[in-house]
Amino acid sequence: MWIRSYSKVFKNLEKENIWQIWTDVNNWPKWHGDLEYCKLEGDFAVGNYFMLKPKGVKAFKIELTHIEEGKKFTDCTSFFGAKMYDTHELEETPDGLRLINTLVVTGPLRFVWIKLVAQNVAESIPQEMETLVDLARS
User: Fold this and answer.
1) Under CATH, which number does the domain 2-137 receive?
2) What is the pLDDT of residues 51-90, one digit of tens each?
3) Which helix (H) or strand (E) holds 21?
């Protein structure tokens, strides 16, 4: 198993604003600079899927696997021989709102998908988090 996690505390940030942006999957390209499009049909609910199309590569089908309303969600991308779980979490602290993003890759061919996808995703998280927060504050 491969795990990478990034978190940062932000002052003067409403968790409801972040949650609203997270659950508006079709507008993720506004804060994910590397996306061509993201398309969710139906509700933001466990078991539902969305299509995520990074620039320059084919679209991926991603399943919503866990949701704690207003607090946390996990999605899962299934690759040949591996799965990548991406958890987004909000935590209220005395110093502000902590945003946490954790990637987990499992499976016998995880090493392939870590090199092809997961490492790039992990490296983009800090900048995407800043863009997300700017969007939430505007």
Assistant:
1) 3.30.530.20
2) 999 998 899 999 999 999 999 999 999 999 999 999 999 9
3) helix 15-23
Q: Which residues have a Cβ under 8 Å from the Cβ of 58 and sit 6 or more positions away? A: none
Among the listed residues 89, 77, 99, the one whose alpha carbon sits nearest the alpha carbon of residue 10? 99
* Tokens, residue 12: 């003067």
Q: Where are the domains of the chain?
A: 2-137
pLDDT digit string, tens, across residues 6-36:
999 999 999 999 999 999 999 999 998 889 9
Q: What is the pLDDT of residues 41-58, one digit of tens each?
A: 899 999 999 999 999 889
pLDDT at 73: 98
| Cα–Cα separations (whole angstroms), residue 75 to 10, 13, 52 | 24, 24, 11
Output the CA angle 121-52-108, nearest 5 degrees.
55
Report angle CA 87, 24, 104 to the nearest 5 degrees.
15
